[in-house]
Amino acid sequence: MAKIILDDQFKNYLLSTYPIDESLLSHLVEDLGEYFSTDVKKFIGLRHQKLQKEGLKNDKIYSQIHEELKERRFAAPELSIRQIRRIIYG
Prior knowledge:
There is one protein chain. This protein has five helices and no strands. It starts with 7 loop residues before the first helix and ends with a helix. It has helices spanning 8-17, 22-37, 40-53, 58-71, 81-89. It has two domains: 8-37, no CATH class; 40-89, no CATH class. By secondary structure, the chain is mainly alpha-helical. The longest helix is centred in the first third of the chain and has 16 residues, at 22-37.
């Protein structure tokens, strides 16, 4: 997991701007670090499981993941639907 370290000035700015305490800010920063450290393959696997649990069929899941990859923070390579399916099932 990527650890995000806030400098004191920015930390104080956030604490004075938003109605949160240091403990909540610490948890938020930790969650952000985890979110931004997810790699493409892990994201695809987790997203596939979540969408399956929501009842979507694989054809819809592959298309949705394909679109979501374009919006994620990592520089994902352009993947075809077939490549997404191969990452999930090998």
